[in-house]
């Protein structure tokens, strides 16, 4: 009951916008902060074996490897590792000073338990290539793969290590990790209170206590104005709002707002589901959109200018081909459409071909304003080409029918496996994402196979880059923008650079290096 009353008091204080005075910098409690960084950070389910940490950082658990500076993999728990010549055996040495938040030493048995448990679950943590794992001694772990899989080391960076001795059915809401932070109080969908893990082997947090609140968009801005928060995630449309005692913080991200453009005419697949789109199935429509739209104008209109143009995977990624080109080539796009038979015969502003109008729906997730706003801005910009796009705000369940109705996705991972999932023909119709463009190109499939079976990262990256160059000619996906993630932070609060492009993580990625934050 005391916890409920305390939470109510905190929320009341937060919502008194306009009445409360901003925090006096001289009265800031130097060893505590209160933040709101998106609804998902207080959603619970912090279980790496169930997929937590794949799409956003996991600050509770350590990993064998982590994506660090310049989006390169670095050792975390691992001190070194070796790969057999056939690419089937990975042998890891792990550090001897790692402990869980309860003081229990982390050993090879915990690593084996974690990956064995994760493999048994159907989650976002993809370990289908893993055959078995064994502990040779307390600090040596060996992974045996079913087949060579060059991205395997990236999958290891996505799964945090859980304690074998303290794992239970409700572990996701009561994690006991070996990361920088430990959970001391949690009220699902309300608040999360963290304290430093005194046993953490890395950089020690500067704060003794972090309170994380869940706030919707309106309440978040009100809380910022009330002076009750030290950091708050805000939508880009509010990013230029002046708030006394706070300043704007922009975090660039690798995630791109991308629309799948089904490459085949509409049909019914073997499972009885609709797939394909007859309008986008014409390459001229896809290519005209790619070169004819003005990405910067779309960013200005949809994201208030807070974003970067995107033409493909982020150039900062080691496996990206970094492809760029000049867009807004309106006349060239029109000629391409005319040559393919798309003409505006009736003068209504929309082209037709054999009685078919250049018109189709694109869905944007109803719980992600950036996606829907981008679709609306894209539709407005595409009018100049004679292409009519109908924006539709839809729940995630409907957006997943993207093989038939294009939708706005967020594409972007440090793991190159995402190219395989989006572009390889074997992934068409698979769960989660599964190549929603129904794209099939034998040349691309062959290069992807070479990338996955490559014996080292450098060789694999060359193939990933070659695959992108081939696929981008067909435009199965319309890459548009990489939105900046915008926050308001208390003046004096210092956030050292991550030295890489993180994923948006629905705003969560900002806390990845929270153990390095400090008051000036």
UniProtKB/TrEMBL annotation:
Gene Ontology CC terms: ATP-binding cassette (ABC) transporter complex; periplasmic space
GO BP term (any one): peptide transport
Molecular function terms, GO-annotated: peptide transmembrane transporter activity
InterPro entries xrefs: Peptide/Ni-bd, SBP_5, SBP_5_dom
Source taxon at top rank: Bacteria
Database matches in Pfam families: SBP_bac_5
Keywords for this protein: Signal, Transport
Record domain Solute-binding protein family: where: 73-403
Sequence similarity: Belongs to the bacterial solute-binding protein 5 family.
PANTHER family found in the cross-reference section: OLIGOPEPTIDE-BINDING PROTEIN APPA, PERIPLASMIC BINDING COMPONENT OF ABC TRANSPORTER
Identification of the protein by name: Extracellular solute-binding protein family 5
Organism listed in the record: Acetonema longum DSM 6540
């Amino acid at each position: 009951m005391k916890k409920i009353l305390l939470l109510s008091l905190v929320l009341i204080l937060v919502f008194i916008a306009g009445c409360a005075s901003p925090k006096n910098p001289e009265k800031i409690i130097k060893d505590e902060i209160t933040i709101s960084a998106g609804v998902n950070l207080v959603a619970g389910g912090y279980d790496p074996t169930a997929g937590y940490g794949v799409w956003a950082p996991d600050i509770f658990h350590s990993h064998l490897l982590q994506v660090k500076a310049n989006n390169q993999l670095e050792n975390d728990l691992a001190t070194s590792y070796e790969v057999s010549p056939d690419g089937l055996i990975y042998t890891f040495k792990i550090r001897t000073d790692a402990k869980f938040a309860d003081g229990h030493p982390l050993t090879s048995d915990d690593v084996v338990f974690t990956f064995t448990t994760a493999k048994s679950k159907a989650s976002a943590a993809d370990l289908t290539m893993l055959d078995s794992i064994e502990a040779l001694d307390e600090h040596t772990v060996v992974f045996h793969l079913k087949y060579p899989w060059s991205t395997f080391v990236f999958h290891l960076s996505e799964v945090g290590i859980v304690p074998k001795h303290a794992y239970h059915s409700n572990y996701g809401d009561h994690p006991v990790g070996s990361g920088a932070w430990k959970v001391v109080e949690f009220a699902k969908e309300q608040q999360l209170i963290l304290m430093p893990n005194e046993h953490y082997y890395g950089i020690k947090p500067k704060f003794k206590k972090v309170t994380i609140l869940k706030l919707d968009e309106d309440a978040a801005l009100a809380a910022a104005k009330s002076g009750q928060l030290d950091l708050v995630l805000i939508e880009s449309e509010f990013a230029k709002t002046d708030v006394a005692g706070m300043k704007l913080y922009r975090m660039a991200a690798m995630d791109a707002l991308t629309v799948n453009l089904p490459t085949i005419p509409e049909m019914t697949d073997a499972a009885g589901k609709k797939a394909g789109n007859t309008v986008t199935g014409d390459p001229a429509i896809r290519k005209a959109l790619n070169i004819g739209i003005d990405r910067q104008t779309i960013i200005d209109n949809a994201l208030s200018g807070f974003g970067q143009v995107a033409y493909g995977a982020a150039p900062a990624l080691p496996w990206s081909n970094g492809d760029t080109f000049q867009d807004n080539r309106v006349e060239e796009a029109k000629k391409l459409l005319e040559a393919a038979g798309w003409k505006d015969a009736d003068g209504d502003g929309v082209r037709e071909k054999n009685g078919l109008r250049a018109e189709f729906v694109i869905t944007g997730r109803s719980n992600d304003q950036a996606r829907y706003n981008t679709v609306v801005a894209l539709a407005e910009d595409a009018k100049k080409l004679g292409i009519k796009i109908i924006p539709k705000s839809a729940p995630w369940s409907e957006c997943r029918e993207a093989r038939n109705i294009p939708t706005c996705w967020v594409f972007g991972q440090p793991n190159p496996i995402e190219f395989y999932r989006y572009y390889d023909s074997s992934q068409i119709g698979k769960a989660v994402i599964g190549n929603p463009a129904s794209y099939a190109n034998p040349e691309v499939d062959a290069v992807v196979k070479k990338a996955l079976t490559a014996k080292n990262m450098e060789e694999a990256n060359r193939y990933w880059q070659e695959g992108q160059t081939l696929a981008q000619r067909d435009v199965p996906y319309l890459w548009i923008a990489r939105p900046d993630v915008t926050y308001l932070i208390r003046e004096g609060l210092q956030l050292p650079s991550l030295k890489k492009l993180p994923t948006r993580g629905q705003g969560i990625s900002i806390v990845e290096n929270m153990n390095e934050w400090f008051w000036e």
